[in-house]
From TrEMBL:
It comes from Pseudomonas syringae pv. actinidiae. PANTHER family: FLAVIN REDUCTASE, FMN REDUCTASE (NADH) RUTF. Coiled coil: none annotated. Residues 1-120 form the Flavin reductase like domain. It comes from the Bacteria. InterPro entries: Flavin_Rdtase-like_dom, NADH-dep_flavin_reductase, Split_barrel_FMN-bd. GO terms for biological process: pyrimidine nucleobase catabolic process. One of its GO terms (molecular function) is FMN binding. Pfam families: Flavin_Reduct. This is FMN reductase RutF. Keywords: Oxidoreductase.
Length: 128
């Protein structure tokens, strides 16, 4: 996921066409990018593995966003989007997604994953 433009607010999401959520994203034309808090590491592990969609969504508390996409309650940041364009490249599609609603929590620490391990970014540092 990365930013494309701020007018209109648009980001891109790259997804393998063999991913279990691919047909859902394409069929619904919506998705929500939920950025996790440090306390949500277990949920990150579920979504990052081969766990079924049913098990993944049973683990968190969810609400429907403006687009109808699932927003994780307590997420650090939720970007509720409608898919406006899709481009196929190799095994993946690049989804261009217009952000239609944003929810965020300033006080919580963000969960980051790099170098094959989890790290957290303190809430105060995220506001800099």
């Amino acid at each position: 996921m990365c930013s494309v433009t701020d007018q209109p607010p648009t980001l891109l999401v790259c997804i393998n066409r063999s991913a279990s959520v691919y047909e859902t994203f394409i069929g619904n034309g919506t998705l929500c990018v939920n950025t996790l808090c440090n306390s949500q590491q277990a949920l990150s592990n579920l979504f990052g593995g081969k766990t079924s969609q049913e098990e993944r969504f049973a683990a968190g508390h969810w609400e429907s966003g403006v687009t109808g996409a699932p927003l994780l309650e307590g997420a650090k940041l939720a970007l509720d989007c409608k898919v406006t364009q899709s481009v196929s490249v190799g095994t993946h599609d690049i989804l261009f997604c217009q952000v239609v609603d944003i929810k965020h929590q300033d006080a919580s620490d963000a969960l980051l994953y790099f170098g094959r391990q989890y790290h957290h970014l303190p809430g105060a540092a995220a506001a800099v």
